[in-house]
Specification:
Layout: E1 6-11, E2 22-25, E3 49-52, E4 65-66, E5 72-74, H1 75-81, H2 83-86, E6 89-98, E7 108-113, E8 116-117, E9 126-130, E10 133-138, E11 140-142, E12 151-154, E13 157-164, H3 165-173, E14 179-183, E15 185-187
Parallel strand pairs: 2-4, 3-6, 8-12, 11-15
Antiparallel strand pairs: 1-13, 1-14, 2-3, 5-7, 6-7, 9-10, 12-13
Length: 192
């Protein structure tokens, strides 16, 4: 097995460019944490609409910033990721429209990441407990526990999404806008 590198996916802080669009739902979602459960969503509204204000930002990105912090990707990105993510995510369609004109922009999907792994390397991560909750400031991953997954959440930290270097290379090669990938320390069990 080759030793893969892993990355934490985060919004790249559109403020660097100060022009990225920020999507807001027209109808408030009852449970904005629904995606952190790593479970199939059967009652998704396929006509869910998010809008953006072009006065706040007008750069359309592949990884769409949004008020919920959900992983929202363009159809172009989904097609480029292809089979690397197909077994690990549920694609939930959304419409993204300009607040002023009502015109829909490119097709987008919310990625419901279904794979939750026991792969946090506590020994090499920087963590603190706040009450009973684990807060991870610097992540380290047990590479052996990831297997063939290229996108996943960690059981100990379900609010973050992690990707493999294969996804990283696709994002960099195609100069996708909107996300930043933070390289993680990865530990491997040495074969004896």
């Amino acid at each position: 097995m080759s030793k893969m590198q892993y990355y934490k996916m985060i919004a790249d802080g559109g403020p660097k460019r100060q022009k990225d669009i920020m999507a807001r739902p027209l109808v408030r979602v009852e449970d904005p944490y629904i995606l952190n459960r790593c479970a199939i969503i059967n009652d998704w509204d396929n006509n869910m609409v998010f809008e953006y204000d072009p006065k706040e930002g007008d750069v359309i990105t592949d990884y769409l910033g949004n008020v919920y912090g959900w992983e929202m990707f363009s159809e172009k990105a989904i097609n480029l990721f292809g089979d690397l993510i197909s077994n690990d995510v549920q694609l939930l369609p959304i419409k993204v429209v300009n607040k002023d004109t009502g015109l829909e922009i490119d097709k987008y999907f919310v990625l419901n990441v279904l794979t939750s792994l026991d792969a946090l390397d506590l020994e090499n991560s920087k963590c603190v407990y706040i009450g009973a909750e684990l807060s991870v400031m610097v992540y380290a991953i047990k590479g052996d526990n990831v297997g063939s997954h290229h996108i996943f959440r960690l059981k100990e930290s379900p609010f973050s999404v992690f990707v493999s270097e294969k996804i990283y290379k696709i994002i960099k090669k195609h100069k996708m806008l909107g996300c930043e990938l933070v390289k993680l320390r990865t530990s491997w069990v040495e074969n004896v």
